[in-house]
Amino acid sequence: MTTLTTILLLATWTVSFGQNSGLKGQVIDNGQNPLAGLTIKILDSDSVVTWTVTGQNGDYELQNIKPGLYDLSIQHLGFRERILKDVRIPANDILQFNITHPGPCTKSEKVCPNGHTDNLIPIVYGLPRKRSIKKSDKGQIKLGGCIVTDCDPAWYCKTDQIEF
Asked: What is the rounded end-to-end Cα distance, in angstroms, of the chain?
């Protein structure tokens, strides 16, 4: 009985470590230039499963991930986090997943993605002054940070707590 238990445990251990599922690719900007130093995270229900940082050529690789559906977080120091939803990690395979960051820009209109136009405030970028800080404290504006890109959202919905 002890020998049988040992064999079953060894078989289970070997199968679990033999699994080689993961994700690899390159992150480039809209001008096809590689982006180094970005943090790539695999998220499962907002919990970090694993993470890495892109190399000099924008390349990354994440291995030994349980197959399934995950969210992918892309962060760069000083910039807004980008979440790619429902990335499927295949069983016993490394998915080639190249990313263009920050992705396509869309023009913001003063209509919440959930269809309403009430309870919306503008997002203000740049170094805030006292007046902006007071307006932010009163909930009249949302402070967006000091680093500005061409793809920053213009509006914040206080009802749904989303930027667009």
From this structure: 62
Alpha carbon distance 55, 60 (integer Å): 7
pTM over 0.70: no
Residue pLDDT, tens place only, 31-62? 889 999 999 999 998 899 999 999 999 999 99
- Of 126, 86, 70, 79, nearest to 102 by C-alpha is 79
40 neighbors 51 (Cβ within 8 angstroms): yes
Is the sign of the CA dihedral 50, 152, 122, 156 positive or negative?
A: negative
Domains and CATH numbers, the chain: 18-100 (2.60.40.10), 120-163 (no CATH)
